[in-house]
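Pasting two entries for a bug report.
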Amino acid sequence: MSQEQGPEESAVADFLQILEEHRKNCERQGKYVEAEIAKNRLEELKMHEENRRKEAMRSRQIAERLGVEEAHMLEFQQFNTLWDQKFREYDERAAELLDAMRQRHLLDQDEFRKGVEAGPARRPKASKELLDLRRKQVMVAKQGDYADAQKLKTRADALEAEEAERHEREAEQHALLAEVKFMQRQEQELNALRKRIQTGAEEQRHARELDLERLLQRYQNVK
C-alpha cells in the first residue's frame, strides 16, 4: 500500500486485490463462470476507480485555480489600496505646496506695496517752459513791473500745477505697471509649480501602470 493513499483508496486497493485473488482461485478451480463475473467486476471497479481519481484530480485543479484567483484578487485589492494611498498623499502634499506658495505670494505683495508707498517721492522735473517763465517772473519783478510779474507768476503756477498732476499720474501708472509685472512673475512661479505637480502626477500614473503590468504578468505566469 502506498503511503500517499488515503483510507478510501487503501480500502479500494485491498478489495481489488481480494477480488483478483478470488478470480485466480476460480480460474484454477475451473469455476470459469465465477471467474468471468470476478473479472468483469474487477474491470468495472478499476474503471470506476480511474474515473474517481480523474474527478479528484479535476477537483484539486479547480481548487488550485480558485486559490490562485483568490490570491490574485487579494493582491490586486492590496495593489489598489497602496496606490490609492500614494495618490492621496501626493495630492495632499501638492495642495500644501500650492497653498504655501499662495500664502507667500500674499505676504510678498503686501511687502511690495509697502515698499512702493515708503519709497522716496521723486520731485517732478520742471519743463524748460516753466523754468523760462520763472526766470522772466524774477527778472520783471526786479525791474519793478509787478503787474507783469504777477501775470507771469500766475501762468507759471498753473503750468507747475499741471506738470505736478501729470507727474503724479505717471507715477501712479508706473507703480501700477510695476505691480502688474510683479503679479505676473508670481503667476509664472505658481504655474511652474503646477506644471511640476502635473509632471509628478503623470510619472506616478506611469509607475502604477508598470506595476500593474508586472502584477498581471505574475498572475498569468502562475495561472
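Entry 2 (this is the one that rendered wrong in the viewer):
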Amino acid sequence: MRMTTPRIAPVELEDASAEQRELLAPFAETLGVLNIFRTMAHTPKALKRFNVWGGYVMGHGTSLSPRQREIAILRTGLLCRAGYEWVQHRRIGEEAGLSAAEIEAIKIGADAGTWSDGETAILRAADELVTDFCVADATWTALGGLGEQQRMDVVYTVGQYVLVSMLLNSFGVQLDPGQTLDSDFPR
C-alpha cells in the first residue's frame, strides 16, 4: 500500500444516502461492501457507470477466460503498485484456477518460463500498455492466437485496471479487514 491512511474515507453504510445505499446494496449480497466501492460511493454517478464497465471486464461480456483476465489484472496491478488490487485479485485469480506459484510468477512476468504462448503474450501486452500505452507489433502478432475480440479485451482489461489502480493509489483505499499485502510487493 502506498498510503497508510485513506485520503478519502470510505462511506460508512449507516451514514450513506439513499442513492449510495442503492448502489452498494448488490455488493452486500455478493462480495461484501469493499472499501473500493464504499470510497467510490462519494461519487454515485461515477460508481454506477464504473460498475457497468467493470461488469463487462469481469466477465459479463469479455471474451477472455477468467484465468486470462486475472493474469492481465494481476500484472497490471503489480506494475501500477496497487496493493489493494493485488490482494483482491490474488484471491479471484486463485478462484480462476491460478496456482500460488503462478501468482508469484506474475511478479516476474512473461519471462518466468511457466506460461503458455498466449499467456506470455498477455503478460507482455500488459507490460507494454502500462509503460508505453501501446501493444508492440510483435506482441500483437503473438496475441493473434487469441482472436480479434480477445485482443481487444486484453487492452480493455489492462486499461480498466490502470484506472482502478490510479484511483486506489490516489484515494488511499486501504485493505479490507482481514487482508494482508505480500511483504515483497513493490511499494
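Dev reply: Rendering is fixed now. As a check, the viewer should reflect this: The CA atoms of residues 85 and 159 lie 14 Å apart.
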